[in-house]
Automatic annotation (TrEMBL):
<feature type="transmembrane region" description="Helical">
    <location>
        <begin position="89"/>
        <end position="110"/>
    </location>
</feature>
<feature type="transmembrane region" description="Helical">
    <location>
        <begin position="199"/>
        <end position="218"/>
    </location>
</feature>
<dbReference type="InterPro" id="IPR030184">
    <property type="entry name" value="WAT1-related"/>
</dbReference>
<dbReference type="GO" id="GO:0016020">
    <property type="term" value="C:membrane"/>
</dbReference>
<feature type="transmembrane region" description="Helical">
    <location>
        <begin position="290"/>
        <end position="309"/>
    </location>
</feature>
<feature type="transmembrane region" description="Helical">
    <location>
        <begin position="27"/>
        <end position="49"/>
    </location>
</feature>
<feature type="compositionally biased region" description="Polar residues">
    <location>
        <begin position="344"/>
        <end position="353"/>
    </location>
</feature>
<feature type="region of interest" description="Disordered">
    <location>
        <begin position="340"/>
        <end position="367"/>
    </location>
</feature>
<keyword id="KW-0472">Membrane</keyword>
<feature type="transmembrane region" description="Helical">
    <location>
        <begin position="267"/>
        <end position="284"/>
    </location>
</feature>
<feature type="transmembrane region" description="Helical">
    <location>
        <begin position="130"/>
        <end position="150"/>
    </location>
</feature>
<dbReference type="GO" id="GO:0022857">
    <property type="term" value="F:transmembrane transporter activity"/>
</dbReference>
<dbReference type="InterPro" id="IPR037185">
    <property type="entry name" value="EmrE-like"/>
</dbReference>
<dbReference type="Pfam" id="PF00892">
    <property type="entry name" value="EamA"/>
</dbReference>
<feature type="transmembrane region" description="Helical">
    <location>
        <begin position="238"/>
        <end position="258"/>
    </location>
</feature>
<feature type="transmembrane region" description="Helical">
    <location>
        <begin position="61"/>
        <end position="83"/>
    </location>
</feature>
<dbReference type="InterPro" id="IPR000620">
    <property type="entry name" value="EamA_dom"/>
</dbReference>
Length: 367
């Protein structure tokens, strides 16, 4: 349910971003303001639920947080925005569907996850990932007959269709964004181990991202027009993307990575393609092709195959192994505390995983 909520939020962000970027909004200004809003939104949760975390910050943790914001925001998000500006929302979303498989490959190379081709779960999971990529490639490369869901569109209100001259540049940007997102998802597994505080992780990453965006943006464009804000759709997009698409989404993804691994959250990206393609056709009057419909079918089959394999893999995994994996996340910060100051965490059946995680963090922070 958390990952479905993430995809619903992403749908609105893609369409709003496409409209304002087509109207000339400076990408790095959008990213700077967006992450300032995100940091402000997540700050109350960070200071209320994770009080006393400042003592856990070190140069090593700061280094991982810096890489987190650089790879997942400046590179991944920035390149995606530029690719989205030069292409269409549906075309750009296709490249996000490659993120799960690339993340899966990175996780296997770094030995975070196992391929498991010798097991039924591994075969189903791998087949599902391949089908997702096949569906994305079909939707991207094969056009077929085109049709429109509505005859009237809003194209006379906004400059929507990009110039064909920039399609190659946009594709290169989107490929770079795909690789950066995969690196970012893989980094989450490491970051959660060294700093298992999702609210502070999101807040600090957003602060660093806004500073990085501002520095790069000022170097590229210092004009007041590029950084000017008004009471228009641009402001709505900044608030929406900052509060929901960044603050809420980052926390939900971090929470999901702890419980299902780095390759689980991006497997839901294909759902965004389906909804964006439909809404883009209804709202912006974009065309829908046979290739997109065929790609959607393959993506849905591949997605559920991967999730089925992942679920079977979790069931086949010995229960102590799962508990040990989750305990490694929550016990990590207690290692620097004196033994007398650490209270045992209750593992009674009435406690949920979230209760155990919150309890271990509070006990670790007590003097």
């Amino acid at each position: 349910m958390s990952m479905l909520i993430v995809q619903v939020i992403a749908i609105g962000m893609q369409l709003l971003s496409k409209v304002i970027l087509s109207n000339g909004t400076f990408v790095l200004a959008l990213m700077t303001y967006r992450h300032v809003v995100a940091a402000l939104c997540i700050a109350p949760f960070a200071f209320f639920f994770e009080r006393g975390v400042k003592s856990k910050l070190s140069w090593s943790v700061f280094f991982w947080l810096f890489l987190n914001s650089l790879s997942g925001i400046i590179m991944a998000m920035g390149l995606f925005y530029y690719g989205l500006k030069d292409t269409t929302a549906t075309y750009a979303i296709n490249f996000l569907n490659l993120v799960p498989v690339v993340t899966f490959v990175f996780s296997i190379i770094l030995r975070i996850e196992k391929l498991g081709l010798g097991t039924g779960a591994g075969k189903i999971k791998t087949s599902g990932a391949i089908l997702c990529v096949a569906g994305a490639l079909v939707a991207c490369l094969y056009k077929g007959k085109a049709f429109y869901l509505v005859h009237k569109s809003l194209e006379h209100h906004v400059q929507y269709k990009p110039s064909k001259v920039h399609w190659t540049r946009g594709t290169i940007m989107l490929i770079g964004s795909c690789l950066s997102y995969s690196i970012w998802y893989t980094l989450q597994a490491k970051l959660i181990k060294v700093f298992p505080f999702k609210y502070h992780t999101t807040m600090i990453s957003c602060i660093l991202a806004s500073l990085q965006s501002a520095v790069v943006g000022v170097c590229l464009d210092r004009s007041k027009a590029a950084w000017k804000l008004g009471w228009n759709l641009q402001l709505v997009t900044i608030i929406y993307s900052g509060a929901l698409a960044t603050a809420a989404t980052f926390c939900l993804i971090c929470w999901a990575v702890v419980r299902r691994g780095p390759s689980y959250p991006p497997m839901f990206n294909p759902l965004t393609l389906i909804f964006v393609a439909i809404l883009e056709a209804l709202i912006l009057g974009a065309e829908i092709t046979v290739g997109i419909l065929l790609g959607m079918v393959l993506i849905i089959i591949g997605l559920y195959s991967f999730l089925l394999g992942k679920r079977k893999e979790m069931k086949d995994m010995p229960k102590p192994s799962i508990e040990t994996a989750e305990a490694a996340i929550t016990v990590e910060p207690t290692r620097i505390q004196p033994m007398a100051s650490v209270k045992p965490v209750s593992t009674s059946p009435t406690n949920t995983t979230e209760d155990i995680e919150l309890g271990s963090v509070k006990d670790a922070l007590k003097p």
